Amino acid sequence: MPHSKLIHAALAAREQSVAPYSKFNVGAALLTASGEIISGANVESASYGLSCCAERVALFKALTDESKYQRNFTAIAIASPGGAAPCGACRQLLAEYAGEAEVILINSGSPESHTSSTMSALLPNAFTGDDLPES
Ligand code: THU
Asked: Given this model, what pLDDT does residue 65 score?
């Protein structure tokens, strides 16, 4: 099955979710062009607004890895109850750093069925910073 390893990585990452408040456990796994998988899970705070989604945890881990080649992302798998789509904040960051990625949404309750989309479909006409003045 295509991306089965990536889907399993997202499901495994979900097991590491720290979501004591919402109890909505999410896992995400990014695939790089060179075949690396970097995963993450949501982390919540008692000050709720400080919580961070699984997608951003995975992305920030990947972007700050010492291996610069891990910046070309071809896919992201996201596992959650019901197979939720990424929030607006995550869409913005994914559009900037993983704009070419296929987005695979997995329902953790029935992981054999998943849907596939793209970042350009999830966030059309994204602001990528291209219009910013040169520094
Ligand atoms: N969450 C994610 O990690 N990813 C999503 O795509 C949607 C929401 C998290 C944030 C919070 O910890 C919990 O799910 C409930 O919103």
From this structure: 87
Report residue 69's pLDDT band, with 50, 70 and 90 as the boundaries: low
Does 64 map to a domain?
yes
CATH of the domain at 55: 3.40.140.10
- Residues 18-63 have pLDDT tens digits of 999 999 999 999 999 999 999 999 999 999 999 999 999 999 999 9
Show which residues are catalytic: 55
What are φ and ψ of residue 97, in 5° steps? Answer: -110, -10
Q: What atom in ligand 1 is closest to the CA of residue 19?
A: 12
Sorted by sequence, the CB contacts under 8 Å of residue 65 that are 6+ apart come out as: 38
Residues 6+ apart with CB under 8 A from 120: 95, 99, 126
Pick the closest to residue 79 from 20, 8, 18 (CA basis): 8
Tell me which residue range forms the domain holding 87: 4-122
Minimum CA distance residue for ligand 1 atom 4: 53
